[in-house]
Design brief:
The structure is a single chain. The protein is of the alpha/beta class. The protein is 41% helix and 12% strand. It is built from nine helices and nine strands. It has helices spanning 7-17, 39-52, 72-91, 109-126, 150-159, 172-177, 185-198, 234-241, 259-269; strands spanning 22-24, 57-60, 96-99, 133-137, 166-171, 204-208, 211-212, 223-224, 250-251. It has a seven-stranded parallel sheet. It has a two-stranded antiparallel sheet with strand order 7-8. It is globular.
Amino acid sequence: MSISGGLERALLRGSKTGCRTIQLFTKSPNRWEERFPEESEKESFLSLRRKLGISPAIAQDSHLINTASPDRHLYDKSFDALLGEMRRCEELEVDYLVMHPGAHRGSGEHYGIETISEALNAVHQKTEEYRVQIAVENTAGQGTDLGYTLGHIEKIFERVKERSRLAFCLDTCHIFAAGYDIRKGAVCRRLFEESDDSIGLENLKIIHMNDSERECGSRIDRHEDIGKGAIGETPFRWIMNDERLLKVPKIIETSQKSDRHNLRVLKKLLNYWH
């Protein structure tokens, strides 16, 4: 949900659309400049959220952050920006901060995963009293992006000392673009079995429900409306009716013009077999 006009506007837009949970940026995602909410903004956001019953509230971090970068200047800027994201989330009582792992930029996957994990450990040290959890999101694997396999996510979890402060965010478009053909029932089941074995389904706190413009294995991240892309409706029906996933918040990340349509489609798929 857009924060245009103020942070609380995201809550109002979500409620008007019929959402029980929302995701937002806490500042412009394409600028390094930091901005922290005024006391009056915080109070308005928290009061309205309680009134509307939006829960959980989820934030996505800036597109610029890359804690896997071998460039020390970019790494330092990314680290500071991630701290800023955490601070805003904590002040606004946002439950989860979704972050893409980052791109290794030619330094290699091992180096990138180590660097991301070190950054997360350092962020946790500097935010000991914070309640917000960082939710590491899988990626489509464009360029040198890390996180396009569950193995990458597992290795990050293994290297983070305060593992209980981490969560996992699964994006359906990304996992499909990375080569997991979730249109096949056996593959979809295996995906969640693998997630349980490697990361733990108890750590799966968010699912980004996006169809894909591109075919399986394209490594291209292009979201499409539910049922109108290469994935189709069936895997979303499975996810909506999987008892293990019923209470996992589900976020739609397509054009806000189609939010109502996508929400109606997902609600229609719920209890499809009952």
